[in-house]
Sequence to fold (103 residues):
Amino acid sequence: MKISNRKFFASAILVSALLAGGVSFYASSSPDGLEKVAEDVGFIETAKDHTLSDFTLADYGVSGLENARLSVGLAGLIGVVATAVIAVGFFTLIRKKATSKNQ
Fold:
């Protein structure tokens, strides 16, 4: 049984959205590798916020939402949609260039 590319990509986006929107809340809240080393070595207190720390999607959530589960899930869904839009645009450009070279 052969699955079409559209069905495959639609399924991949659906699974990604389910994982990002529902399961991401259960991800580890432990610090990442760099942050863990900074704590262990003792230079974590010298860390500064980056320039986008006030951005709406900073720190794996949507700022302004009080419900942590909803905030993390919505941020994950926004990430999946943004990635899908960029990928579709990129692959469309590649297809157009490949088609024009073959003519």
About this structure: The helical segments are 5-23, 33-41, 68-102. The first helix runs from residue 5 to 23. The chain has three helices and no strands. Residues 86 and 99 are 20 Å apart (CA to CA).
